[in-house]
C-alpha cells in the first residue's frame, strides 16, 4: 500500500485501517482497495469531522459540490462511501449510512479513443523489443496493463483449434482467449526473446513485484511511446474497436475477449465511424 501524505483524526484513521483489512480479507483486488481507500480518506480530510459517526449526507454534499470532479469519479466516490458506511454500521462505528442519500450521478457519455493506425505504426518504429512485446499484448489481445505485467510463458496453451492464452484479469479472474501462432511463439521465447540473457521461461517481463514488473511500469513503458494525452489503455480501445468490426459487430464476442462482465462496459470501448453509420443505413434500405 502507498504511504499516506496526510493524517486523519484518530477515529477516522482507525476506521479506514480496519475497513481496508476487511477488504483484504475478502480478497478485493489491490487496485480496488487503493482506489476505495483514497476515496474515503479524501472525503474524510475535506469533511473536517472527528469521526465517521457524526457525518451526515448534507456534510458530504457540501464537500462534493465544491469539487471539479468528473461524473465517473463522483460515481466511484459514492460507491466507495456507501460500502464504507455499510461496513461501519455492521461493526458499530456508525448507525446510519449518509452516502445512501447522496444524489444519483448519471453515467458520462462513452468516449472511446482507439489508437489510430498511423500512431500504431509510429509506435512500432520507436519501440524496443520489450516495449513492442508489451504493446502487442494490448493491441492483439486487448490486455490491460496489469494483465500484461503478469503474462507468463506457461500461460500459452495449445488446443485442438490452435494456441490460447490464459489472461490473469481483475479480481483474480482468469479468461482464456485465442491468439495467433506468431504471438504464441513470441511469448514462448520468454523474456530472452526481447532482452538478451533473460532466459526462455517465466514471466515475460521479470521484475520485483512477485517476480514481474508492476502494472504502472508497463503502462509507462508503452504510454511513453504514444503522443501526449494517449495511454496504453487506448490500445485496448483499439483492439475492441477493430475486433468488433472484424467479427461482424458481435458485441458479445468482444465482451468475452475483453473480460467484461456486461456489454454496457464494452460499449464504452467501441468507436463508431461514419462508415459504421452508413453501413447501418444501407442495411436498413436493403432490407426494405
Question: What does this protein look like?
Answer:
The chain is 51% helix and 7% strand. The chain is mostly helical. The chain folds into two domains: 10-101, Tyrosine recombinase, N-terminal domain (DNA polymerase, domain 1); 117-278, Intergrase catalytic core (hpI Integrase, Chain A). Strand 1 and strand 2 (162-168) form a beta hairpin. Helix 1 packs antiparallel against helix 2 (30-47). The longest helix has 20 residues, at 71-90. The radius of gyration is 22 Å and the shape is globular.
Give descriptors for this structure.
single chain, 288 residues, DNA polymerase, domain 1, hpI Integrase, Chain A, three-stranded antiparallel sheet, 13 helices, 51% helix, globular
Strand and helix layout:
Layout: H1 10-25, H2 30-47, H3 57-64, H4 71-90, H5 117-126, H6 129-141, H7 145-149, E1 156-159, E2 162-168, E3 174-178, H8 181-188, E4 206-209, H9 215-223, H10 233-246, H11 251-258, H12 263-267, H13 274-287
Antiparallel strand pairs: 1-2, 2-3
Number of helices, where a helix is a run of at least 4 consecutive DSSP H or I residues:
13
Rg calculated over all Cα atoms: 22 Å
* Number of structural units classed as domains: 2
Instruction: Give, in spatial order, the strands making up the sheet with the most strands.
Output: 1-2-3
The rough form would be described as globular
From the coordinates shown, what is the CATH architecture of the largest domain?
Orthogonal Bundle
Overall average residue pLDDT: 92
Order of SSEs, N→C? HHHHHHHEEEHEHHHHH
CATH top level of the largest domain is: Mainly Alpha
Number of E strands: 4
Provide the CATH topology of the largest domain.
hpI Integrase, Chain A
